[in-house]
Specification:
Elements (H helix, E strand, L loop, with lengths): L1 E4 L14 H9 L3 E5 L10 H6 L3 E3 L2 H7 L2 E3 L6 H6 L5 E4 L7 H9 L3 E4 L14 H20 L7 E3 L2 E3 L3 E5 L3 H12 L3 E5 L5 H7 L3 E2 L18 H15 L4 E4 L14 H5 L6 E4 L16 E4 L2 E4 L9 H16 L5 H6 L9 H6 L9
Parallel strand pairs: 1-2, 1-4, 2-3, 4-5, 5-6, 9-10, 9-12, 10-11, 12-13, 13-15
Antiparallel strand pairs: 7-8, 14-15
Helix pairs in contact: 1-11, 6-7, 6-11
This protein binds nicotinamide-adenine-dinucleotide (NAD).
Nicotinamide-adenine-dinucleotide (NAD) binds next to helix 6 and helix 7.
Length: 369
């Protein structure tokens, strides 16, 4: 069975879906690994490290795409690359097949067995494969560092000969994986940290990291550990209390998301106008439109003295560790396809009774298949 990794083609993408460590494990499992030269370079993994791990390096993407039974990627291959993948091959990565009609059509036309990892059910067994969580951790960490860089203030309290500096007040909106990492990071930098989320169970998690839970009196616990959408009245009340509170906040890091929907708009333009000059908002939810009305995805703007940043693909900025985690997640997932049966038959093994495969594969398969 040939496992292939080509260079990522999305602009600014530095991560790689296989590290020398996971390459070695794939080889130990009997796979032949074909990799495009320099595919790991932007994540600081050298070609030599991959050859030492047993990979065969090739110069061009096409040699990978046409040879692989199983292709691993971070972001989806571009249209040209999709057209070169061997018909019927398996493709594993953050594929967002519905985000781009041409991409979805190409996957269907090439009869690829596509596993968009963002579709993975979030069960206990899937935790070790959960790329959304591992990448969100890096994003939350980087978001706070960006905020600290943009802020015209210290985060920690300082007692100096030039007087005492009070610590910055940081509010983290949304306490999922990214939000909790943001809280932990801001805390380590010495800020006074608050977090809030519509899921009440986050209170304990925020407090365990040394943050204060901001209680806006609105709960929206939904099914399967996700948030549900708030009603109009609940939203209005949340907004009013939040607007008041933000007048005393120096830095906001936004991470609130509802799966499969645009990010909830939580910070209005009026709330931003009410904040102190020199305040900073870093909106990690920019990817899905942003939690702040003023956020421009991919851009940093200033409004009434408040800086609003909407950085994209923050996980890529921590490419070494983000790739290490991503690659381990991917290895754990593809291990399902590379079981003993696969080793015997020399073909990927698809157990469609396994919900992790059946629920992740795209397009959805009819039950009888
Ligand atoms: P996410 O990225 O989907 O959302 C981020 C956070 O935003 C969530 O905590 C959500 O409650 C919050 N949010 C949504 N609307 C909001 C609003 N209007 N105001 C304030 N906050 C709002 O979430 P995530 O990081 O992927 O994780 C969500 C939960 O799922 C976490 O508890 C996580 O531990 C859990 N989880 C479980 C598994 C597993 O068991 N396999 C895997 C991943 C995540």
């Amino acid at each position: 069975i040939t496992v292939g990794v080509a260079r990522e083609t999305a602009p600014g993408e530095r991560r790689v879906a296989m590290t020398p460590e996971t390459c070695k494990k794939l080889v130990a499992r009997g796979a032949r690994v074909v990799m495009q030269r320099d595919a790991g370079r932007h994540a600081s993994f050298s070609d030599e490290a991959y050859t030492d791990a047993g990979a065969t390096l090739v110069d061009d993407a096409q040699s990978v795409l046409s040879a692989a039974d199983l292709l691993l990627c971070v972001q989806p291959p571009d249209a040209a690359a999709l057209g070169q993948i061997r018909e019927g091959a398996a493709l594993v990565g953050l594929l967002a097949p519905q985000a781009d009609a041409a991409r979805g059509e190409a996957i269907v036309a090439r009869r690829l067995v596509a596993f968009p990892l963002e579709r993975l059910p979030r069960t206990t067994r899937a935790q070790a494969m959960d790329v959304l969580s591992s990448q969100a951790g890096m994003a939350g960490y980087k978001a706070v560092l960006i905020a600290a860089t943009l802020a015209p203030r210290f985060f920690p309290m300082l007692t100096t000969a030039a007087g005492t500096i009070r610590p910055s007040k940081v509010l983290v909106v949304g306490a999922g994986v990214a939000g909790l990492q943001a809280i932990a990071t801001a805390k380590r930098l010495g800020a006074q940290v608050e977090g809030f989320d519509v899921r009440p169970e986050t209170r304990e998690q925020i407090e365990s990291l040394g943050g204060r839970f901001l209680d806006l009196g609105v709960s929206a616990a939904g099914e399967g550990g996700y948030a549900r959408q708030l009603t109009e009245e609940e939203r209005a009340e949340q907004q009013r209390r939040l607007g008041e509170h933000l007048k005393g906040i120096d830095v906001i890091v936004c991470t609130a998301a509802v799966p499969g929907r645009p990010a909830p708009k939580i910070i209005t333009a009026a709330m931003v106008a009410g904040m102190k000059p020199g305040s900073v908002i870093v909106d990690l939810a920019a990817e899905t439109g942003g939690n702040c009305e003023l956020t421009r995805p991919g851009d940093t703007i200033e409004s009434d003295g408040v800086t609003v940043a909407g950085p994209l693909n923050l996980a890529s900025q921590g490419a070494v560790h983000a790739s290490e985690m991503y690659a381990r997640n991917v290895l754990n997932f593809v291990s399902l396809l590379l079981d003993d049966k696969a080793a015997e038959s020399g073909a990927l093994s698809y157990d469609w009774n396994d919900e992790l495969l059946a629920k992740t594969v795209w397009p959805e398969r009819a039950a009888s298949q």
